[in-house]
Write a structure and sequence with these properties.
The chain is an all-alpha fold. It has one domain. Helices cover about 65% and strands about 0% of the residues. It is built from 6 helices and no strands. Helix 2 runs parallel beside helix 6. It is rod-shaped and about 125 Å long.
Length: about 160
């Protein structure tokens, strides 16, 4: 019989490892981190953008549950909310008919200019001297302000004149 060759045993190579990562995996990780940061940034910006609107609406709901809200106070709340979203130098100077036109320009269905005479009366009328019909009309004006807050804020691009 022949003598077997004196060979060393076969040593299998090590199994491939995950580390160091290939460049493709690094690209996937960096892209995922970027996308997570982008989503976080967008959500935070959206929350901050909605903050003035939510604060104004909460003031409406708190005031209406207690003793009601006058149209004058409702207009003040709407103006404060509008100043949070629109350029101050253009909004702060608006009053009367110009203010009502601005409010209507932000809505698809106008609510304010058509009721201009009601607004003028309601802003300066004494609550103690009103009858039930006038109180309902004033409540409708306040509801119009709340509708404006819900539908016009935050402003859509290109809506401001």
């Amino acid at each position: 019989m022949k003598q077997p060759l004196d060979l060393s045993p076969v040593i299998a190579p090590d199994a491939p490892t995950w580390w160091p990562l290939a460049w493709g995996w690094w690209a996937v990780i960096i892209t995922a981190i970027f996308l997570i940061a982008l989503v976080f940034f967008i959500l935070k910006r959206r929350k901050n953008n909605q903050q003035a609107k939510q604060e104004a609406l909460s003031y409406f709901s708190n005031s209406q549950s207690q003793d009601g809200l006058s149209p004058s106070k409702a207009q003040d709340i709407v103006r404060q909310a509008a100043l949070s979203y629109f350029p101050r130098e253009k909004i702060a100077g608006l009053s009367g008919d110009d203010w009502l036109k601005f409010l209507d320009a932000q809505l698809a269905k106008p609510l304010f200019v058509a009721k201009q005479s009601q607004w003028q009366q309601a802003l300066y009328q004494d609550v103690a001297l009103m009858n039930d019909e006038q109180k309902k009309a004033q409540q409708q004006l306040v509801n119009d302000c709340e509708t404006w807050l819900r539908k016009a804020l935050p402003p859509k691009r290109g809506r401001y004149e």
